[in-house]
């Protein structure tokens, strides 16, 4: 069964028509990448799915159930998760409290011990206010939160921006681990290298529409990367 | 002025400061959680006091039973306000919330006037004892009221620290969108916030009746102090509000050694207004 | 386009009609109605004061009744038969209220978000407390009376109280203010200035001092409220601390919101619509403020754009208009 399905999704900010009919199907265990130039609508796409965009039209289904009438928090409890740069952590809560805030929203959260097993780097910071951690560590806290609620669909909005290469690799590992656990991952990224390495499928978003899609190999060999983003695919495997 | 008189006024100041901090707490919670400036907060305090006065004087109930009843009454009223108004105002221009709560203030104050009349009502304190210390004879009830106010503050602090909703109530003001995205049930958290704000401000109103009586305009007398304390403490900053409230009480107490009650209120408020000039967004800043 | 035309025409008709009504009422009506209209005129001053403060200084003020009262109280000692008396009352009230506004705004513009509104509530409360405590000076709730029956103006003696002469003396500046605002709105400089004033960051980038602008606009709004207060005192020949009550400010807010915030004629239309209704109701029902409160709640939740804003919204079709500032939005759309 398809984990997340978008049909003819449109999104508007005031008079601006940002998303102009997006169709997407995301299966459990898939890592689907969305790439595109700045302003193409990538962030709007994720926000619209999460219920944070002011005006949205079209179909949005999570395991067949429509999300359209649900507010953001209900969508989250249904298994949809968003990791976004401007909302990584609750700054004044400790790392432990950050995770507990999430754990309390679901009936069967992942035990905190198991979460720490997947992200052991957080052990030493467990009781520190999350706002004091570095950007990369905060990102790990955000991932820990989403692990805690056993999210079924994880959307990541440029998770590696401004982070060190070691953290970028780490995030890639965790994304693959999640996919192995049948989580469906939707990854919006500027870092082409990571995207090509981790994704099973890529969509290229331009001016609010998907203009191309395929496996990373296909996208690179057809020269689509250069065409739409102006970058070469050197480094894809 | 003699030392014992000064001490009397200072203790009065601390008592009032603690009651004020309970009132300010609710206002702060509503702002911190929902971003709403509740101009009707003084009216809720007044309703708590009028409820208490009615239940004690007309229904003849025992004071200690009336305290939680009055609190409950205002708690329910605030929940109703939350559903009718706060929820509708959440995602809109803040001016709308200001106007709507101003409307609530007018409506509540004048409804109480219509129902209960304009005469101030007095309520006898449940304990008449007077205690002596350092040459001062001080009414025990006021100390009890202060103690209860302190207890309420501690109870709220414990609630915020150790319960599920308390954690969520701490999380939401720090990152509203993130809270929603994390799955925190925002509507329910808002309702709990409104309930706690109502319970505390209603209790404060009831506690104050043996000291200041009950009158349909007593909300007005408290709203300036309440607001100024919250602004200086830093909007949404609970600890800040409590600290500044007690400080206000002390300052007012100090002025009371020199001026009449009305003028000491004016002086204390004006003093804090000067602080607002230098620190327009609070001493401790917003959370 | 058809829809836009009929609503624009309706708005123009409404505005013209309200203006005409204002100007001819005292000639047609009895003493009672003249008094009635005079009270409305005075409330329009107060409502315009509030509207200017909200729309141009971006301060939602609950204290404009204070500026109104300053103008009113200042009038009392200045009324005499001397030739300079009326100008002194008017200039004095405008200057005093304007200065008070400047002083208050100096604090308010430094505050973020809607803290200024809270500050206006606080200041209004302090002022009422102090005024009642100083009943020796202010007369407290009983207030002060103006015994004189006439006031000197150049060579003439103008009858005070709700006289025809005084009515026109009050209405003319009001109409001038409204027409002036109308003319200013159409100029490009004004639109640029207002657009910039809405966004302090952008203003700073363009080298424009938005804070100074807001300060001056708030002072002007206070001055206008003060002038209204002066006319109120002259008409009633009586001032009391009830003019300092926050309920008066809230009434002005209601008129401005119902008429349409940010519009030139909004305050006038709001007063003309609501004031008579509340006066009539008060004949049968003592607790009119309950209704005012309920109406304010309903209006702010459901009709925040007011009469003019809603009409412009209808005319513009599906395009969303801002909640406040309907005139400017219409002007910007070329409407």
UniProtKB/TrEMBL annotation, chain A:
Keywords from the named record: Amino-acid transport, ATP-binding, Nucleotide-binding, Transport
Tagged with keyword Heme: no
Domain of life: Bacteria
SMART domains xrefs: AAA (SM00382)
Example GO biological process: L-amino acid transport
Gene Ontology terms for molecular function: ATP binding; ATP hydrolysis activity; branched-chain amino acid transmembrane transporter activity
UniProt-listed PROSITE patterns: ABC_TRANSPORTER_1, ABC_TRANSPORTER_2
Residue intervals of the ABC transporter domain: 4-232
InterPro entries named in the record: AAA+_ATPase, ABC_transporter-like_ATP-bd, ABC_transporter-like_CS, BCAA_Transport_ATP-bd_LivF, P-loop_NTPase
Pfam families (alphabetical): ABC_tran (PF00005)
Family: Belongs to the ABC transporter superfamily.
PANTHER family noted in UniProt: HIGH-AFFINITY BRANCHED-CHAIN AMINO ACID TRANSPORT ATP-BINDING PROTEIN, HIGH-AFFINITY BRANCHED-CHAIN AMINO ACID TRANSPORT ATP-BINDING PROTEIN LIVF
Protein's name according to its UniProt entry: ABC transporter ATP-binding protein
The organism of origin for this protein: Xanthobacter dioxanivorans
TrEMBL record, chain B:
Stated family: Belongs to the binding-protein-dependent transport system permease family. LivHM subfamily.
Molecular function terms from GO: transmembrane transporter activity
Pfam family, one: BPD_transp_2
Stored PANTHER family: AMINO ACID ABC TRANSPORTER PERMEASE PROTEIN (PTHR11795:SF445), BRANCHED-CHAIN AMINO ACID TRANSPORT SYSTEM PERMEASE PROTEIN LIVH (PTHR11795)
Localization (cell): Cell membrane
Listed GO CC annotations: plasma membrane
InterPro entries for this protein: ABC_transp_permease, BCAA_transport_permease
Organism (species): Xanthobacter dioxanivorans
Protein name: Branched-chain amino acid ABC transporter permease
Membrane-related topology note: Multi-pass membrane protein
Example GO BP: amino acid transport
């Amino acid at each position: 069964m398809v984990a997340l399905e978008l049909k003819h999704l449109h999104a508007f900010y005031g008079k601006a028509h940002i998303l102009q009919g997006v169709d997407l199907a995301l299966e459990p265990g898939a890592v689907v990448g969305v790439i595109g130039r700045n302003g193409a609508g990538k962030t709007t796409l994720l926000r619209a799915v999460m219920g944070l965009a002011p005006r949205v039209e079209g179909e949005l289904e999570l395991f067949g159930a429509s999300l359209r009438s649900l507010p953001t928090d209900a969508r989250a409890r249904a298994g949809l998760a968003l990791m976004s740069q401007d909302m990584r952590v609750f700054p004044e809560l400790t790392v432990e409290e950050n995770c507990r805030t999430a754990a309390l929203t679901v009936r069967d959260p992942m035990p905190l011990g198991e979460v720490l097993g997947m992200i052991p780097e957080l052990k030493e910071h467990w009781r520190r206010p999350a706002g004091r951690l570095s950007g990369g560590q905060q990102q790990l806290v955000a991932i820990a939160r989403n692990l805690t609620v056993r999210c079924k669909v994880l959307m990541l909005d440029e998770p590696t921006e401004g982070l060190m290469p070691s953290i970028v690799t780490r995030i890639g590992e965790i994304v693959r681990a999640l996919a192995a656990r049948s989580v469906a991952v939707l990854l919006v990224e500027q870092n082409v290298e990571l995207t090509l390495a981790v994704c099973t499928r890529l969509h290229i978003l331009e001016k609010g529409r998907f203009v191309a899609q395929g496996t990373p190999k296909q996208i690179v060999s057809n020269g689509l990367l250069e065409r739409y983003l102006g970058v070469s695919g050197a480094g894809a495997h | 002025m003699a030392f014992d008189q000064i001490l009397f006024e200072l203790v009065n100041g601390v008592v009032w400061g603690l009651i004020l901090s309970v009132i300010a707490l609710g206002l702060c919670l509503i702002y911190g959680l929902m971003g709403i400036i509740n101009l009707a907060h003084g009216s809720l305090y007044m309703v708590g006091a009028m409820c208490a006065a009615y239940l004690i004087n007309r229904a003849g109930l025992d004071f200690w039973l009336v305290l939680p009843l009055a609190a409950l009454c205002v708690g329910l009223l605030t929940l109703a306000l939350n559903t009718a108004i706060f929820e509708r105002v959440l995602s809109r221009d803040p001016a709308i919330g200001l106007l709507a709560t101003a409307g609530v203030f007018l409506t509540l104050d004048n409804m109480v006037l219509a129902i209960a009349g304009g005469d101030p009502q007095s309520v006898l304190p449940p304990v008449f004892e007077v205690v002596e210390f350092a040459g001062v004879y001080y009414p025990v009830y006021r100390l009890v009221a202060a103690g209860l106010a302190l207890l309420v503050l501690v109870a709220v602090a414990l609630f915020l620290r150790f319960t599920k909703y308390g954690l969520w109530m701490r999380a939401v003001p720090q990152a509203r969108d993130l809270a929603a995205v994390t799955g925190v049930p925002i509507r329910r958290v808002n309702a709990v916030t409104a309930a706690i704000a109502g319970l505390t401000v209603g209790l404060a109103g009831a506690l104050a009746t043996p000291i200041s009586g009950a009158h349909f305009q007593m909300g007005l007398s408290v709203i300036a102090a309440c607001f100024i304390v919250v602004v200086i403490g830093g909007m949404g900053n609970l600890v800040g509000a409590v600290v500044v409230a007690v400080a206000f009480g002390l300052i007012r107490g100090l002025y009371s050694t020199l001026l009449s009650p009305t003028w000491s209120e004016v002086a204390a408020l004006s003093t804090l207004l000067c602080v607002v000039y230098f620190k327009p967004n609070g001493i401790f800043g917003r959370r | 386009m058809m829809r836009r035309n009929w609503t624009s025409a309706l708005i123009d008709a409404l505005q013209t009609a309200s203006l005409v009504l204002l100007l001819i009422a005292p000639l047609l009506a009895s003493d009672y109605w003249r008094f009635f209209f005079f009270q409305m005129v005075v409330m329009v001053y107060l409502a315009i004061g509030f509207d200017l403060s909200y729309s141009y200084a971006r301060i939602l003020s609950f204290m404009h009744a204070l500026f109104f009262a300053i103008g009113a109280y200042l009038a009392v000692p200045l009324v005499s038969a001397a030739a300079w008396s009326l100008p002194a009352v008017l200039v004095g009230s405008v200057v005093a209220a304007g200065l008070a506004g400047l002083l208050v705004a100096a604090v308010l513009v430094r505050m973020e978000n809607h803290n200024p509104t809270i500050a206006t509530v606080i200041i209004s409360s302090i002022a009422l407390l102090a005024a009642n405590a100083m009943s020796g000076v202010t007369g407290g709730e009983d207030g002060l009376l103006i015994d004189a029956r006439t006031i000197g103006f150049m060579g003439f003696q103008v009858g005070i109280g709700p006289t025809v002469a005084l009515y026109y003396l009050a209405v003319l500046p009001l109409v001038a203010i409204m027409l002036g605002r109308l003319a200013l709105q159409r100029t490009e400089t004004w639109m640029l200035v207002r657009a910039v004033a809405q966004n302090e960051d952008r203003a700073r980038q363009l080298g424009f001092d938005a804070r100074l602008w807001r300060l001056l606009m708030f002072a002007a709004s206070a001055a206008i409220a003060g002038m209204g207060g002066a006319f109120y005192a002259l008409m009633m020949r009586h001032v009391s601390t009830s003019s300092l009550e926050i309920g008066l400010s809230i009434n002005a807010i209601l008129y401005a919101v119902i008429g349409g915030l940010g519009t030139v004629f909004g305050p006038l239309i709001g007063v003309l619509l609501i004031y008579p209704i509340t006066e009539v109701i008060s004949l049968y029902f003592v607790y009119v403020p309950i209704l005012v409160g309920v109406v304010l709640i309903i209006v702010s939740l459901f009709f925040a754009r007011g009469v003019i804003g809603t009409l412009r919204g209808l005319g513009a079709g599906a395009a969303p208009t801002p909640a406040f500032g309907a005139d400017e939005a219409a002007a910007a759309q070329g409407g």
